[in-house]
Design a protein that fits this description.
This protein is an alpha+beta fold and about 575 residues long. It is built from six helices and 35 strands. The strands form nine sheets. It has a five-stranded mixed beta sheet, with no helix packed on it. Strands 28-35-34-30-32 form a five-stranded mixed beta sheet. It has a four-stranded antiparallel beta sheet with strand order 4-2-6-7, with no helix packed on it.
Amino acid sequence: MIPGSTATATLEVRNPSTVVDGYVFAPVDPPPWLLVTHDDAHLMPGEARTVTVAFGTRPGGMIVAQRLQMTLAVRSEDNPAMATEVEVAITVPPQGPTASMEVTPSLLRLDDVALGSFRVRLDNRLANYPQRFALRGRDPEKAVQFSFSPSIVEVGPGQLVEVDGLFTVPPIRHGEELSRQLTILAVNDATEITAIVTLLQRRSPAEPFVPIGLELAPSRLSMIDDSIADFDVRIDNRNGSTPRTLDLHGRDPEDRARFAFTPAHVVVPARGEVVVRGRISVTPPPAGESRSVSFSVVTSDEGRDVEAPGTVEVTSSPPALRTATLQMEPAVLNIRGARSGAFRLQIDNRRSARPLDVALAGHSSDGAVEFRFVPPHTRVEPHSVGSVRVEVEAARTPASETRAAQLVITARTDEGAIEASATLVQSRTDRRPIAKVILVLLGSALMAIGTFSPWIAGDRYGEFIGMLSSPNWSDVPLLVAAGAHVLILLVVLGALFGLTGRSGRLIRVSAVFGLLVAVGFAVYTFVASGGPENGGSVELVTGFFLVCAGAVLAYIGGLFARPRH
């Protein structure tokens, strides 16, 4: 059925009932635009008749081309519960013209740009069926590139669709104008729709060329014990009217450096500037040396090379051994009579940026000192001080002698060695002079005490002083006893005076003499008492033993006074 017209169909209807009945033809769930009418359908009992059913459309609105399967219910007026259904196929054919196309604006202008846009309008409002098109564009020179979003468009029945189109044109020379005819096409299997658009392309006269500016910050770099330094590259396009696309490179005349830039490919906007991070890598010189490397950062701007110069000073610290020092603490060590002692060796590496690994050794001026280092090998980190215990051992010196040995400590590496010196002093105290004085004083004291004490029972030496007032020189025993005691006092004085000598001879002689006096007095007294033939006897008492003991001690002290050989 064509919209706006009527289509008919005939149905054979029979009344099977025994009464006169009328029948109604009603569609089941019809579309809103469908209008169904039919002829009179009142039948006598058992009568059969052909009834014409008309299918039409309601006024207003567009009926979309379609094919639908519809159910037509035939219902009894007398008994509505009695009904039967008939399937009817209805076809609405396509109707209307091909869609039209309009491109706006129809006159395009591009000033100093290469990208333009337009809008495509596809109008299918007069057709009741959808139309599908592929959008394309072309120009006589085939120099323009087109794109559509979307490129395939389906325009529904009675609809209008707009699509955005973009195009890119090749750039023209500064100060030039160019007119192009662009053809926009909407194509499907049945037809091709075209629209013409005029393009006016213009480019302003070229501005004077202003090269970009390059600057390194800092332009003078310094490396100490390192091989890498970073710097900034400032790219100045503030006086440029167009963006610049640049690739950065580094170079040095001696080809000693390597460069890296982040990013190496950069776009600098017009009237703007960009900062790029650069890095230079240089092989360090040998230890203790410096090297200056000149370099430049280069880029090509519109065929012209632009560069920014810089220099890098590369310094390698000297080997740690050159700046290290050794110091022995204490500088002089007196171990007196001991065999061993310990120094503290300070290894100063504070002036170096390199670690110091050393092996330690030592020797003495007399070759008699043995060394032990704890630890024997040590590592001192940069800018720090290491400490090592140095233990020394040497044979003891003889008594009353002093020996000083010059010690040399060597710290050695592959680069050489450094030394530190110290002095080891050994001094052993001679206790013989002290023993001499003590023994002589003690012996003299004992002899002096014994002098004023009786030596034998009945010793009358005390009567000697009284005899001076009324002398009796005939009393020989008394004179002998007094003389012996007086001699012992002289012995004591001799022994004491002998302390001033170096050999101790006077002390020994005095001691022997005093012992002889005491023993001789005892013998004299024994003989004077009658001797063993006449039954004589002598009883020795404390004074005698004190004198003898004092004489022995003084003699021993005199022996200690003799010099050693």
